[in-house]
UniProtKB/TrEMBL annotation, chains A, B:
This is Thiamine-monophosphate kinase. Its EC number is 2.7.4.16. Mg(2+) 5 binds at residue 183. ATP binds at residues 98-99, 126, 182. The lineage of its organism: Bacteria, Pseudomonadati, Pseudomonadota, Alphaproteobacteria, Sphingomonadales. It is an enzyme of class 2 (transferase).
Amino acid sequence: MPLHPGARGLADDAAQLDGLVLTSDTIVEGVHYRPADPPESVGWKLAAVNLSDLAAKGAAPAGCLLNHALTGDGGWDRAFLTGLGEALERYGMPLLGGDTVSLPAGAPRVMTLTAIGRAGPRVPERGGARAGDVLWVTGAIGGAGAGLAGAPAFLERYLRPLPRLAEGVALARQVHAMMDVSDGLLLDAARMAEASGLAATIALDAVPLPPGYSGTAEQAATAGDDYELLFALPPGVEPAVPATRIGGFAAGRGLTLSLHGAPRPLPASLGYTHGG
Amino acid sequence: MPLHPGARGLADDAAQLDGLVLTSDTIVEGVHYRPADPPESVGWKLAAVNLSDLAAKGAAPAGCLLNHALTGDGGWDRAFLTGLGEALERYGMPLLGGDTVSLPAGAPRVMTLTAIGRAGPRVPERGGARAGDVLWVTGAIGGAGAGLAGAPAFLERYLRPLPRLAEGVALARQVHAMMDVSDGLLLDAARMAEASGLAATIALDAVPLPPGYSGTAEQAATAGDDYELLFALPPGVEPAVPATRIGGFAAGRGLTLSLHGAPRPLPASLGYTHGG
C-alpha cells in the first residue's frame, strides 16, 4: 500500500496535504453509540468527534464529507441530519459532499464523516513530547463517562460533546505534542508517551473533575468521550487557554500514576477501545 | 446544514476546496458488491470507483482516506487491503489515513474511501453541456454488466474496473461537461442532460460494445459499473483521447433514443440505482 509522507505512518489522528489537515471517523450503531440514543445527538457526536481531531491539530474547519447510511427510517435520518447540521453550524464547518447508501434491513448503521481543516502555522503531533515537559489537559474529565453511566446531570456531556477548536488553534503555537481525549485520559496519555518514546506520570489528584461529579479520579481518567485536549508544554510555559497541569514526561517508557504523592498501580483498563 | 460553495449544491460527484477535488464513496456488502465476490476485487473496486470520480473531474490522485470495517475475518480483510493497495499503487494514489472500526457479528460490511485529487486548469461539471454539443463516451459499454450476469470473459471488467484517469486529465481541458458512467449509460446521460437543463439523444446503434459482447445495445446501455467517461464537446471538436460519438444535446428536457435512425422508446429502467 503506497503511504503518503503526510500520513505520518498512520499513527496519528489526522493527515496533512497541501496545507490541509484531514481526518475521518466512522461511528457504528451499538459500538460507538447506543441504538436508543437520540438521533440528533448521534449526528452531533459524529461532527464533534471529527472536529475534535481537527482541534488537536490546531486546524480551522474548512469543509467535510458525509457518508450516510439509510436504513429506511426517514424520521431517524432527518433527526440525525438536524443534529449533525447544528454541530457543523456551531463550529463553522461547511458540508462539501459525500455519499448516501442504503443498508440491508436490520443492519446496524455505519456513518462516516471526513473533516478537512486549514492548518495553522504549526500542526502539533501526538508524538512530539520531550523529557521534562509538563502534561496539561483542558476542561474537566469524567463527565461524559458519568453521563453514559446514567447520571442525568452529565448526560448532555456524553450526548453532545463540545470540541475545543478555538483552544486548539491557540495551543498549537505553543505545544510540543497534542491530542484529544477520546478514549480515556490514561489511555490517551499512554499513547502520547508511547508515540513520543517517553515515560509519562499522572497525578490522579490533579485530574480536573467536573462540578458535581461523584466518582473517583481513576474512574474519570479511564472513561472516554470527553473530547478535551491533552498537551505537553515545556516547564515554565503557561498555556494560552485555561487548563490543568496533571503530570509530566521523562526518559523511559510507560505510564505511572500517583495519588497525593504516593504511587498508585495502573487500573486493569486505561480506557475504552472501540474494538478497532 | 451549512453548504460550502464548492459543494456545487451536492449535485455533483465531487467537491472542490483550495485547488483540490474531493470525493467519497461507500460500498455495502450485498448492495454494491456480492458477498461471494473475491475480497481482493472488492478492495480494488472501492479504489476504482473513487478514482473514477476524480477522473471525471480531470484531477490527479493526491491522497486518500480509508474507513475500514472489520467483521472478524482477518483473511478477508487482508485480501481486501491487498486488492485496494494494488489499485492505489497502479494509479499512484497514496494512503493518507482513515479509521478502522469493528462491526457487530453478522453485520454487512460497509467501507468508505475518500479520494482527494489535485485539480487541473479546468474542473468539468456534470451540468455544463450546451445545446448543439456532441455526446461522447470512452472505451466500451456493457462489459461489466455482462460479467455481473455471469459471462466469464467479462467477469474481470465487473470485478476490476479501470478508471480513466489519464483520459480524464486530457479531456478536462476540452469538455463542456463530463461524468463517469457508473450506474448505466442511459441513466448517467439523462443525469447530465438534467443537470445541464437540456434534452439529450443517444443513438443506440452507436454505443460502443466490447468485442465478443452478445447482448443488445440497450442491455449494455442500461447496465452499470463500466466506469468509462461520458462527455460533451462542441460540434467539430475531436476528443484528445479515443472515444465514440453516441449522441448530442439540444434545447428541451429528457432523454430520447434512436436505433438506426428510428425512434426507440425508453426502457423501463435506465440503469442501476443503489437504493441511495
